[in-house]
Amino acid sequence: MVTVRAPATSANLGSGFDVFGLALERPADVVRVERADETTIEVTGVGRQYIPENPAKNTAGVVAEELDAPAHIEIDKGVRPSSGLGSSAASAAAAAVALNELYDCGLTPTELVRVAAEGEAAVSGEAHADNVAPAILGGFTIVTDEDVTQVDASIPIVACLPEIVVSTRDARQVVPQSVGIGELVGTVGDAATLTAGMFRDDPELVGKGLRNNSLTGAREPLIKGFDAVRESALSAGATGVAVSGAGPSVLAVCREGGQGSVASAMLDAFFDVDVEARAYQTSIGDGATIFR
Ligand SMILES: Nc1ncnc2c1ncn2[C@@H]1O[C@H](COP(=O)(O)OP(=O)(O)OP(=O)(O)O)[C@@H](O)[C@H]1O
Ligand SMILES: N[C@@H](CCO)C(=O)O
């Protein structure tokens, strides 16, 4: 039996649609695998009623099929599904790392990212790896068709999750299919600024890189109260705010020790538009961890 904890993640970060991702210290999924003749899945924890136990429809089951590693898989969900915090990716990442260990497959962490991305494809229709990469590798990650690059980074974060459901599949429909040259130039500038900030552990630069972006910004209207929540977070000291992944979570980058006031400002702003929410005061953290 092997048990793995894989963290929640936040993808896109404004300027890095389908490219950037970061691991959060919390929340996380815990997945336990045991060898079996055929794959079965049991789900407990937050939002379990929305998660299929049919292995063909669960990201962890798809990973078991990809690795040809049948197992009884117990998933304890800490990351709410359809949260924008990489819920489906946390299970896929934890299952990939756990099954690689259980069956001694010998895959490298980067190879496991590609396997876990197939689990994501089963639920969102496309094998984007921007959540599974940080869920496995930790820190800040940059995913392209050819490569996965990981950078250790330490930045304070608030991830505010409202009681709204946005599915990744639906949120991908609102992203524009093309952008103009001016927008492209701005996006490259923001992405480069954010990346420099990650290397320097500099919340000011990372926050600047989250600036409003026409691709990921197209999702803001799907989140009731988004503009007010962003303004409140910035007034409370956040250096930048963006939709987390496909939403509805809202990510705020904070200065050292600034998470408390930013979290409470974001919760108040959601409350003012009658939306219940919870805020994780966290920071960029480690990837999947095996418990022996
Ligand atoms: N193990 C799993 N954990 C969570 N959701 C799963 C799992 N397997 C399948 N799903 C399905 O995936 C969907 C949730 O994935 P989705 O990508 O929409 O949310 P998310 O992972 O929280 O968001 P994002 O990718 O934007 O961060 C739900 O429909 C859920 O039923
Ligand atoms: N890059 C993905 C992340 C969500 O899974 C998207 O924004 O659709």
Automatic annotation (TrEMBL):
Cell location: Cytoplasm
Keywords of the record: Amino-acid biosynthesis, ATP-binding, Cytoplasm, Kinase, Nucleotide-binding, Threonine biosynthesis, Transferase
Family stated for the protein in its record: Belongs to the GHMP kinase family. Homoserine kinase subfamily.
Annotated ranges, domain GHMP kinase N-terminal: 56-139
Taxonomic source organism: Haladaptatus pallidirubidus
Pfam family, one: GHMP_kinases_C
InterPro entries in the record: GHMP_kinase_C_dom, GHMP_kinase_C_sf, GHMP_kinase_N_dom, Homoserine_kinase, Ribosomal_Su5_D2-typ_SF, Ribsml_uS5_D2-typ_fold_subgr
Ligand binding (ATP): R80, P81, S82, S83, G84, L85, G86, S87, S88, A89, A90
Name listed for the protein in its UniProt record: Homoserine kinase
A GO biological process held by the record: threonine biosynthetic process
Transferase is among the record's keywords: yes
Cellular component GO terms held in the UniProt record: cytoplasm
